[in-house]
From TrEMBL:
Protein name: Undecaprenyl-diphosphatase
Species of provenance: Melghiribacillus thermohalophilus
Pfam family, one: PAP2
Source superkingdom: Bacteria
Regions crossing the membrane: 22-44, 51-72, 95-114, 121-137, 143-161
């Protein structure tokens, strides 16, 4: 099933140049936008706790991904199968996806902080996650696992940090 969905999504690449360009952009730079968005929360005193929550969730998640990736050592689709990729990539473990984890943290933080922006935030995050399959770098289970880990780590980290003295709860942005 994983390979079937991968082939279905990846087969769309190379057909429409503006879609390819968008997916390449999101695959190459989406995670940078997401990290900068999380870090930008430190600029506003009222949202520093959520910024800290995001950074801790990212660090813990990326360390977990490194551990899981080392243990599972799943080859990327372009290594395991004869496919063309849209962006050159060095071989490294495919499972789970770091960029999907980053997108999961981004979507969850801004889901909590900006209720009025939930739909665009989730659309942007999901497009970035799907772009990793589209360009040929990940299987669907890689990105689903990475994103879910990010989604789970935010409330867990938030809960742990809220139990610490001196760290107050942030209020939604009102967006």
């Amino acid at each position: 099933m994983d390979l079937f969905i991968f082939e279905l999504l990846h087969s769309l690449s190379g057909k429409v140049s503006y879609i390819d360009s968008m997916m390449i952009f999101l695959s190459k730079y989406g995670y940078i936008l997401f990290i900068l968005s999380v870090l930008s929360l430190f600029l506003f005193p009222a949202y520093r706790k959520m910024g800290l929550t995001g950074v801790v969730a990212l660090v813990v998640g990326l360390l977990l991904n490194l551990l899981i990736g080392t243990l599972v050592d799943r080859p990327r689709p372009f290594i395991a199968h004869d496919i063309d990729i849209l962006i050159p990539k060095e071989p490294s473990p495919s499972f789970p996806s770091d960029q999907a984890l980053i997108a999961g943290v981004f979507m969850t933080l801004f889901w909590i902080l900006a209720p009025k922006l939930r739909i665009p935030v989730v659309i942007l995050g999901l497009l970035a996650v799907v772009s990793r399959i589209y360009v040929g770098h990940h299987y669907p289970s890689d990105v689903v696992t990475g994103a879910l880990l990010g989604v789970i780590l935010v409330p867990v980290t938030r809960r742990i940090l809220s139990n610490r003295r001196g760290i107050r709860e942030d209020k939604p942005l009102g967006l």
